[in-house]
């Protein structure tokens, strides 16, 4: 990092990622299923998760 703006951007990104991880951990602890996917990957991952749940009898 060479500038104050770069440092702030980095700190903001780290803060966001830490908060996001913490939220995911809290939701998982309550039994929520979390899917972390980019928009392009969401459809295929959602279908795969659904089929796994269906196969396991979770639904």
Notes on the structure:
The chain is mostly helical. It has one domain (4-56). The protein is 75% helix and 0% strand.
Helices and strands, in order, run as HH
Q: Beta-sheet strand percentage? A: under 5%
Got a strand count? 0
User: What is the rounded distance between the termini?
Assistant: 48 Å
Q: How many separate helices?
A: 2
The overall pLDDT average reads: 95
Organism: Pseudomonas syringae pv. avii
Protein name: DUF58 domain-containing protein
Keywords:
single chain; about 60 residues; mainly alpha; 2 helices; about 75% helix; elongated; DUF58 domain-containing protein
Give the topology.
Elements: H1 4-29, H2 39-56
Short description:
The chain has one domain (4-56).
């Amino acid at each position: 990092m060479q500038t104050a703006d770069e440092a702030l951007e980095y700190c903001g990104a780290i803060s966001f990622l830490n908060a996001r991880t913490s939220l995911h951990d809290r939701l998982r602890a309550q039994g929520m299923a979390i899917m972390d996917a980019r928009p392009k990957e969401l459809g295929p991952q959602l279908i795969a998760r659904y089929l796994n749940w269906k196969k396991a009898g979770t639904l």
